[in-house]
Structures are given as structure tokens and as C-alpha cells.
């Protein structure tokens, strides 16, 4: 009786499938990563504006102007977020402000396909 040798390993279709999945994953990461980095910058700037206005009785318009200045200095695209997209609340027991923001980022994937990501955040309440 002749024993058949069992095949082990991966087929060429399996290799192609793995390569396609890896390429698509890298493609999406390359498209999404700048938006995530930009969110980190915006979050950091909002916290900085909040800290800069701690202990000062500035108007909400002055806080908005400060936010816009920080955005322009740090190179954040004005189409992504502006001071009109933030909510400013005075903290009653503290002398600071709480800044909340939310915006949608549309990322072009190809042809007529976009990926929409909703980013939101608020400043730390230290």
C-alpha cells in the first residue's frame, strides 16, 4: 500500500490573499494616520489654550481668538476645525475654562469613496 504524502504549508492563493490584505491595511493606515496625528495636535492645542486662560477672566471671544492663533501657528488646516467648532464653558469652582470640540474628517480613499471619522474631545479639568 502506497501512502500519500500530506501537503503542508500555504498555497499560492493563500499567499496572494495575505499580500492583498496586508497592502489594503497599509494603504488605509497611510490614509488615516495623518488625521489621527492632527487630532492629537488639536487636543494638545485645546489643552494649551485652556491652561493659558487659567486664572484670567477673558471673554469667550478672546479664548476663540487664542484657539485660532494656536491652530494657525501649528499648521492645522482651517478647513478641519475652527474656533466656531468649539464650546467654551467656564468652570464654576475653578478659574479656568473647559473647551469641548467635535469635527468630522473625510478621508479620500479612491474614486468616489470617502471614509468619515468623527473626532471629539475636551480639555483636562486639572
Q: How much of the sequence is in beta strands?
A: 15-25%
Distance between the termini: 79 Å
The arrangement of helices and strands along the chain is: HHEEE
| Class inferred from helices and paired strands | alpha+beta
Main β-sheet, spatial strand arrangement: 1-2-3
Characterise the protein shown here:
The protein has 126 residues and is an alpha+beta fold. The chain has a domain at 35-122. It has two helices and three strands. The chain has helices at 12-52, 60-73; strands spanning 86-90, 97-110, 113-122. Strands 1-2-3 form a three-stranded antiparallel β-sheet, with helices on one face. Helix 1 (12-52) packs across helix 2. The model has no long low-confidence stretch (mean pLDDT 87).
Topology:
Layout: H1 12-52, H2 60-73, E1 86-90, E2 97-110, E3 113-122
Antiparallel strand pairs: 1-2, 2-3
What are the defining features of this structure?
elongated; 44% helix; 126 residues; 23% strand
Amino acid at each position: 500500500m502506497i501512502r500519500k504524502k500530506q501537503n503542508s504549508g500555504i498555497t499560492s492563493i493563500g499567499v496572494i490573499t495575505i499580500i492583498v490584505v496586508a497592502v489594503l491595511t497599509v494603504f488605509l493606515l497611510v490614509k488615516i494616520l495623518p488625521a489621527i496625528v492632527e487630532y492629537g495636535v488639536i487636543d494638545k492645542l485645546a489643552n494649551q489654550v485652556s491652561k493659558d486662560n487659567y486664572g484670567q477672566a477673558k471673554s469667550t471671544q478672546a479664548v476663540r481668538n487664542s484657539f485660532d492663533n494656536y491652530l494657525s501657528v501649528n499648521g492645522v488646516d482651517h478647513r478641519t476645525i475652527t474656533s466656531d467648532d468649539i464650546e467654551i464653558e467656564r468652570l464654576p469652582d475653578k478659574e479656568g475654562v473647559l473647551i469641548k470640540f467635535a469635527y468630522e474628517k473625510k478621508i479620500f480613499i479612491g474614486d468616489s469613496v470617502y471614509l468619515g471619522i468623527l473626532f471629539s474631545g475636551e480639555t483636562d479639568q486639572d
